[in-house]
User: Fold these one by one.
Assistant:
Number 1:
Amino acid sequence: MLGEGDQFDWALRASRDAGLPSIAVTPAQGKALMLLAKACRARRVLEVGTLGGYSTLWLTRGVGAEGRVTTLEVDEKHAKVARQNFSRAGISARIDLRVGRAADALPGLAQGVAAGIEPAFDLTFIDADKPSTPDYLDWALRMSRPGAVIVIDNVVRNGEVANEQSTDPSVLGIRRTVEMIRKEPRLEAAAIQTVGAKGYDGFLVAVVGG
Ligand code: SAH
Ligand code: DHB
Ligand code: MG
């Protein structure tokens, strides 16, 4: 879209052809992720939930030639498509794709940051299994530098997240996440509601305090 080059179109087509679900971020949201990465001069980005790598492509563009994106994906079929998309875009060297449950990869990543072996993350994008979102936020917070940005996808879900009667585990996961942010003095956040190619939804942008 908007002359952003073909790698994004290729990635979506390859994802569709491989039978992946059509749940990547929209082009507008992808571009917003890229701009957020640029705005906070992100060099090191963490993504939870790769799918076919569409959002990863945007984030990688946002971090520039010196930046790196670590992205976590549980499904080998999704990861294979993502790998092909990264290779085709010529950016494989800047992406660390780890296949497995995010909950299994995150402690090791956090250890690397705590030990000073790896720098803290400048930006994290959480977009995987929604019931686990509070846990992913907890890990992201531990690995974020002061001033880092944490983005959480799908926080509106056609308004269902505002429905106190909902018993949907995904909705409950997001509601718990919002409650956690409310109580967390290190986080300030706003939910951005979106209407567009993928219906009525939204993403939350949080900034980590010092
Ligand atoms: N960020 C992607 C979309 C991600 S869809 C984009 O916008 O292009 C959510 C992804 O999270 C799916 O690929 C799913 O397989 C993955 N996922 C689900 N549970 C997971 C888990 N426990 N650990 C890691 N990834 C998981
Ligand atoms: C779903 C997951 C997503 O991350 C998304 O952006 C849209 C839909 C889903 O699981 O239905
Ligand atoms: Mg999503």
Number 2:
Amino acid sequence: MASRGQFSSRTGFILAAAGSAVGLGNIWGFPTNAAENGGGAFVLMYFILAFCLAYPVLMAELIIGRHAQANMVTALGSLSNSRFSKTIGHLSGIFGVIAASLILSFYSIVAGWMIAYMIEPLLSSLGLTETANWLITSGTTRNILFCAIFMAVTTLLISLGVEQGIERWSTRLMPTLLAIMLGLIVYVLLQPGAMEGLRLFLVPDFSQITQPTLILSALGQAFFSLSLGVGTMLIYGSYMQKTENLPKTGAIVTLVDTSIAFLAGLLILPAMFVARRNGIDIHSADGSLIAGPDLIFQVLPSLFDSMGEIGLLVGFMFFSLMVIAALTSSISMLEVPVAFTIEKTGFGRKPLSLAVSLIIFLVSLVIITNFDRLFGLVISLTTEYMQPLLGLMLCIFAGWVWHRDKLLSELKQGHETIEQSLFWKIWPSYVRFVCPLLIIAIFAQPLFTSG
Ligand code: TRP
């Protein structure tokens, strides 16, 4: 079998894993969730849960991956001693591969819209108004075309491999993302009206903090944002060098992810209130703030329009930011089925990247052509059900199935004195008891609220 890829440095790993974590979930999901759930109160709860719940699960994935040096199916199987737990491990791994592929099938549709909206200002500035309008008018042909373009770029990067594709491009794109974001934040905060949005984002409305919907949204947001449950972080962990200190590296990734989400909040919410100052409606009929697709594809573009010439540049920068964020995430999703098929069949990375993406693209086509029926369904199936349930399985494997001494010896590589650390005192019982119980709570939540 060909030798496995590896990240060449710790920075490379951190940027790749942070690239996976930082995506549309941070820049779009987080700020709008905050707007809907009491602003600062949600932000506070999100930070607590990201570090106290998502970080331990992230560690489970990274440790299992680096130990097993394999995809989730093989990895979970290899931790087990009994035939029963091996079967459960394999099945969980296979569901992980399916979930990652399904998440990519809808993510690439949304990312395709971002590309269309990114190109629109360029065409408008060239006077090609008709084509520009076509780009921002929802339609099946447009959706298929841009989903295909986005998938093609994702496939290209993944076919280049771990170091040349994932690491190299994450290392280039992540600093670019940060630079664009900081530039946009400074610009937006200087516009009239911005401070009102800033206040909503930062000042906690403590009356909302104990609401179950707030806690559960924050939890779901943290899970999606750290790319947990489907084996993305597990496979990235498997490409990490044995000399890395795992708890510290995982903590940095969590910190980068939450910080970028926080920065996105400093951009999106103030931008909404600048839009309101410019006469754009930012509330829906029931009085709540507009969130979801209408925020990104209507409120913000109208804001850019109302800014005149500079709005074309701001709009272009904003949607470039979205495309970059989506791309470093989508490659991490595609790597899950690609690594799995490479390791199972022994075929080359290039043909398998192509074959796997084609299958995922076909699924996207089915979703696009049955949009109203399938789009929301696939999102909810994967992110509300499969991700938490698989996260639960990962905790069970790290906390109950895997032998504690073996886990310790994996952690000792790269961190000799781990036994004395706070991490080792807390984490093992944490993934055994606290994480599974909390995840069961998220997983059970829709059952209680839907009726
Ligand atoms: N975390 C990314 C975001 O915030 C999305 C993502 C990448 C993801 N890989 C994943 C989500 C795996 C779930 C599972 O947009």
